[in-house]
Amino acid sequence: MPFNLAALQETIAAAIPDRPALIFRGRRFSFADFTQRTRQFANLLLDAGIAPATPRNELENWQSGQDQVALYLHNGNEYLEAMIGAMKAGAAPFNVNYRYVADELRYLLTNAGTRVIVYHARYAPMIEAIRADIPEQKLLIQVADESDNALVGGAVAYETALAAASTNRPDIDWSGDDLYILYTGGTTGMPKGVLWRQADILASALGARNRSGALLPDLEAFADRAVKTRPRRYLPTPPFMHGTAQWIALSAWHNGHTIVIQDDVERYDPVALLGIIEREQVNVLSLVGDAFGRPLIEAIEAQGHAPTSLTHILNGGAAMSPAVKAALLDKLPGARIIDTIGSSEAGPLARQVAIDDDGTKTAPKIVGGSVVISADLSTLEPPGHEGLGWLAKTAPVPLGYLSDEAKTKATFPVLDGVRYAVPGDRARLLANGAIEFHGRESSSINTGGEKVFAEEVEQAIARHPAIVDVLVSWRPSERWGQEVVAIVQLKPGASATQADLIATAAKTIARYKLPKAILMVDRVKRGDNGKPDYRWAKQMAESTRGTRPE
Asked: What is the pTM of this model?
């Protein structure tokens, strides 16, 4: 596909200019409004000297060839405006985790070769603290927020700068080769910038296919679909600094739908979330595993009724247990839950759709282009194969990792002339085409010579009704090498012994996979996007040395 996300936004907006594109804290932006504001942002960058893109055929897969724009922002209209606006300027925007401390930010902004930073005013002191240690910036753009921090020296105010910028379409030759950059979370190592051609990420994850799975043939087909669609309202709850929320928002727009952003963008508040769903009549809600699903169920129970507008729950980024899915479906009659397994390096890999309790227990099915490659990366595995392989994806896949040739070649191997993305998840392809998903290799535990995947133990323990959340890690063991340790959070007022939890887990997993210790905590630590913090889990597991289950 030759399509570029900037050109696609302009095309769709021209077809449905008056339809709401985004709703945030009572402000409503039409598709035409969004076009104007992203053009203004693009022209602001161009006036600051954003460099023309280097042709893709002159670059290696791990090279950018564009100026990078850091999005150091909470959710809001500014995040999506800056993202698409940067693309309209021929620059490559990328996500910044606003929870990072100074050293992490220095690494990230330097690794990315950042030339422009767009940041909320609350982070002005951090920008001041690190600016001497990162590449020289062509522009600093400060977005006002509740902090009322003064402008960093030399920075411009977002709204003031936009108002002064031209609304003309930028004089840029947009290309499908222009980059979409998504930095990984760095939960098991340093963050890595995944380089996608915009045409490839569009085809893989951003709504470029019709209901039969075929790619739309041209930009006019996108516009025609948007005109004919019955618009829905989507609310992505995770931060836009993670791919899940970005992909949901862009896919919704590419189908002509409206994005709603929750009022409180600093924390997940399910009670307030229900109010916004009802106020804006949200139809599609995205969640991230049990960490988002369980509190939502409790909030629905507390208010005594569920929102009637919701028709779909999209889950991604972390597993959602069958029990939580079943409870959500019970609270939302007629809704369906679409659970997607994917990664920054591959896009969607497998999907499960549940409309009733039976559906929550089925295994996910692979999506187009997904395969399982043998453990030694030598062959494609047939359905029903023995042993575990690697869950992988064929084209369209990313080019590679920014500035990292070795990891690019390792993660995107070529097999029989075909290039694959192998993000690191172990799985078995079942005879019926479903996936038996075991989890990320980097979070697996080798105990007594047997490999145990953290996710499968977490799912087994999460079946206990007293559990709110659980993460699994390991500690050293003289006897086994590594021992499984579970860190669990119970519901308020609930009680369960370690023996109770182990008995529940033993119903679905082998004995050698059961935890050798269980640590009860007030709160299991996850990122704002609901993804597990396995570094924290490992520290907590280490603290249990010498203990045994009751």
From this structure: 0.88
Name the 3-class secondary structure at 443.
Answer: helix
What would the 3-class secondary structure string for 70-118 be? Answer: EEECCCCHHHHHHHHHHHHCCCEEEECCCCCCHHHHHHHHHHCCEEEEE
How far are the Cα atoms of 39, 82, 333, 374 from residue 165, in angstroms, in the given order? 8, 14, 49, 54
| Dist. CA 243–CA 317, nearest whole Å | 9
User: What whole-number distance in Å separates Cα of residue 259 and Cα of residue 269?
Assistant: 18
Q: Per-residue pLDDT tens for 97-143?
A: 998 889 999 999 999 999 999 999 999 999 999 999 999 999 999 99
- The pLDDT, as a whole number, for residue 348 is 94
Secondary structure (DSSP) of 196-240: EEHHHHHHHHSS-B-TTSPBP-SHHHHHHHHHHS---EEEE-S-T
* CA-derived radius of gyration, the chain: 23
- Residue 94 near residue 69, CB atoms below 8 Å: yes
Give per-residue pLDDT as tens, 20-58.
Answer: 999 999 899 999 999 999 999 999 999 999 999 999 999
Q: Could you give the domains of the chain?
A: 5-219 (3.40.50.980), 233-386+410-439 (3.40.50.12780), 448-542 (3.30.300.30)
Nearby residues of 505 by Cβ (< 8 Å), 6 or more positions away: 457, 460, 461, 463, 464, 513, 514, 515
Q: Determine the 3-state secondary structure of 371 from DSSP.
A: strand
Q: Is the pLDDT of residue 188 over 80?
A: no
- 152-177 burial, b if ≥16 CB within 10 A, otherwise e? beebbebeebbeebeeeebebebbbb
The answer to whether 522 and 492 are in contact (CB under 8 A) is no
Q: CA-to-CA distance for 424 and 390, rounded, in angstroms?
A: 7
Element spanning 380, H or E:
none
> Which pLDDT value is given to residue 179?
98
Identify which of 183, 170, 148 has the alpha carbon closest to the alpha carbon of residue 9.
Answer: 170
Closest by CA position to 442, among listed 478, 413, 420, 473? 473
Interstrand relation of 450-453 and 233-236 (parallel, antiparallel or unpaired): unpaired
Specify whether the CB–CB gap between 283 and 311 falls below 8 A: yes
Residue 485 CB neighbours (<10 A) = 26
Nearest-CA neighbor of 226 among 8, 16, 23?
Answer: 16
- pLDDT tens track for 416-454: 999 999 999 999 999 998 999 888 887 888 887 777 889
Question: According to the model, what pLDDT value does residue 550 have?
Answer: 44
Q: CB 379: neighbour CB atoms within 10 A?
A: 12
